[in-house]
Write a structure and sequence with these properties.
Length: about 475
Amino acid sequence: MKWNTLLCAKRMRGGYGTGSAGKAADLRSEFEKDYHRIIGSASFRRLQDKTQVFPLDKSDFIRTRLTHSLEVSSFGKSLGQNIGQNILTDGLDSDFTPQMKEDLCHILQCAGLIHDIGNPPFGHFGEMAIREWFKQNLSQIYFYEKPLVQWLEPQMKEDFYHFEGNAQALRLVTKLHYLVDENGMNLTYALLNTIVKYPVPSTGINKKTGNCKDKKMGYYYADRAVFEEITRETGTFPNRHPLTYILEAADDLAYTTADIEDAFVKGYISYYLLEEELGKLEAKFEHPEFPAQEKLRIYYRRGVEKGLWNPQSYAVKNWIVRLQGYLISCATSSFTLHYEAIMNGEYKEDLFAGTYGGVLIDMLGDLAYEKVFCSNDIYKMEIAEGVILDFLMNKLVKAVLYYDTGRDLTSTDIRVISFISDNYLNAYRHQAKGKSEAEKLYLRLLLVTDYVCGMTDSYAKRLYQELKGII
């Protein structure tokens, strides 16, 4: 893979650029233009009311998908600056230029903003609930005398069984976010390729390969042509875009440290528990590269010396900032070390694999899972969220089943369909032209997931209450 194609500034609706400024009146690069398209979009704004870990939380401290995405964007840009400079100073690639370093940073900054833009309400549990709904219902619901499962091609079925926010993100920004026409936000191909973490279809998922790119699906059957064009123009197929590894590292870094900080603020994890767990981890290593327990203790002692009312809070929050700096260094070194394998499409793991930073991330992830994600409070909320999503999926799928077939709809179904955004309905009509009955049925089911994924947590809850007659 070569950077001159990897940083492809082409768009689906013309506007091909080289990544540098095109018109004297507009000094922005094509990738800087992407940034302004994203932050001005309604889809991006909706992330302010989507769950990161704690759904519908009333605290103004706890992170949402929006604040998480801003953090990933920031970390992505920082990693891009470090890695781009290493490529230049270490002479890793004679074709890599200072302008490419600048473009790389802008792409990662944008990718961080939209990497979660396709996620449904209620976080990762929302994804799981939608997958389970399809597994339970595709064989139970009939369309013209046959169950839905018998109408769908293998990849169509697997799309729903493995429903994935990553694939939905690509779909949203290329088709559903109607800005000017059916090309969505019309973002650059380099950016679009960067957010495809898993360049395989739902039928290509294979966790046994040991390659991180094969763990989940990256695009729907309906969007295969878009995926093929993007990867052809950037020259990546069948591999990950190199910048995807950096985006993934920024995401891992952001959510791991944020989950610990949010859990501490919410009272799920104490300073003393974190100190104890770090001590257990370090006991397994003779000379840990990053003495995390001691650094945490140093911040605590500093807080006491300052006479702070809560030295534990001071210690945890400052320790997290220090840890983030160390993890940025780990990911930077890893990308530089594995540069040739990454550029040849041969690198199979994430950037933290085999590093002490990866050990710390795994430990902190396990701690958050045990103390937060498996807590009764979260379980209770997730059960309620599952009830909401099951109800909405039942109502919406029933309503769209015979939409656009010529068959009369019930008055209730007509009203339910009227709730769906015109953007999504227009996207369906455009994509359904000339398609077979089975393909149109598949697109109508996607219409439902498109609408549900576009909901914020509050809107999903409110719509459920209104349709159930709960005042």
